[in-house]
Amino acid sequence: MNLRDVMPKAENSTNFNIVPDSVTEVGTTLDNLKAAVCGETGASAKYAEFSKLAKEAGYDQISRQFAATSAAEQIHIKLEVAEIQKKEPDYVPPTAPEMSGNQTDVNLISGALGEIYETSDMYPNFVKVAIEEGETSAELVFTRAKLAESVHAELYMAAYNNIDAPDNDAFYLCPVCGYIHKGDDFEKCPICFAPKSSFKVF
Q1: What is the CB-side half-sphere exposure of residue 197 using CA atoms within 13 A?
Q2: What local confidence, expressed as pLDDT, does residue 56 receive?
Q3: Beta bridge partners of 195
Q4: Which residues does 185 contact at the CB level (< 8 Å), separation at least 6?
Q5: Average of pLDDT values for 139-168?
Q6: Rounded to an integer, what distance in angstroms lies between the CA atom of residue 101 and that of residue 62?
Q7: Strand order of the sheet with strand 171-173?
Q8: Are strands 200-201 and 171-173 parallel, antiparallel or unpaired?
Q9: Is-contact 156 123, C-beta < 8 A?
């Protein structure tokens, strides 16, 4: 993702449209936050399992990538739970389900498809409702998650295409929004502008 002069938001971006064949069940912003937490919890658990399987199969770099993405989803969960608890202080997030996986190449496709759904369908729907309801804090959380998921999908497809010709680049995780950068050729997060020095390395 290229760095812009301003932080990307729905109001200054043209890639927040909802896919025509949307399958997302949309409710209030509170409903949508809870749905997002459930989805991200499953995704984080899935990627943690995929990371383990990739390591066992000898794909060290892809294992680190899955681990970084699992951690990114945990950032989204934390932000979304905090929004829910503003209205429901006693809310307890769901427990992560048991997950299984397949061969690493297929797991990369599975990951890409999940991230594409979130960035093109789920989160654009949730952003739209948050804007309509004036839920600016939730809108920001959804927006940053949507943008990060798009990059996750791109990285998964790059790993799929290069599965038999990997490099040794590290993955850098933004602790604020869950953006992941492959390699060290950056200065700050293109989504939230957090400095490179704050990133976690995988």
Answers
A1: 0
A2: 98
A3: 188
A4: none
A5: 98
A6: 14
A7: 180-182, 171-173, 200-201
A8: antiparallel
A9: no
SS3 of the chain: the string is CCCCCCCCCHHHCCCCCCCCCCCCCCCCHHHHHHHHHHHHHHHHHHHHHHHHHHHHCCCHHHHHHHHHHHHHHHHHHHHHHHHHHHHCCCCCCCCCCCCCCCCHHHHHHHHHHHHHHHHHHHHHHHHHHHHHHCCHHHHHHHHHHHHHHHHHHHHHHHHHHCCCCCCCCCEEECCCCCCEEECCCCCECCCCCCEHHHCEEC
pLDDT digits (tens, 9 = 90+) for 28-42: 999 999 999 999 999
Structure tokens at 150: 């798009």
| Cα distance between residue 177 and residue 79, in whole Å | 9
Residue 76, CA distances (Å) to 31, 40, 93, 98, 109 in order: 16, 7, 12, 20, 21
Measured over all CA atoms, what is the biggest interatomic distance in the chain, rounded to whole angstroms?
49
Q: Which two tokens stand for residue 175?
A: 């602790």
Euclidean distance between CA atoms 37 and 92, whole angstroms: 11
pLDDT band (50, 70, 90) for residue 125: very high
Q: How far apart are the first and last CA of the chain?
A: 19
Please give the structure tokens belonging to residue 123: 């989160």
Distance CA 69, CA 180 (A): 8
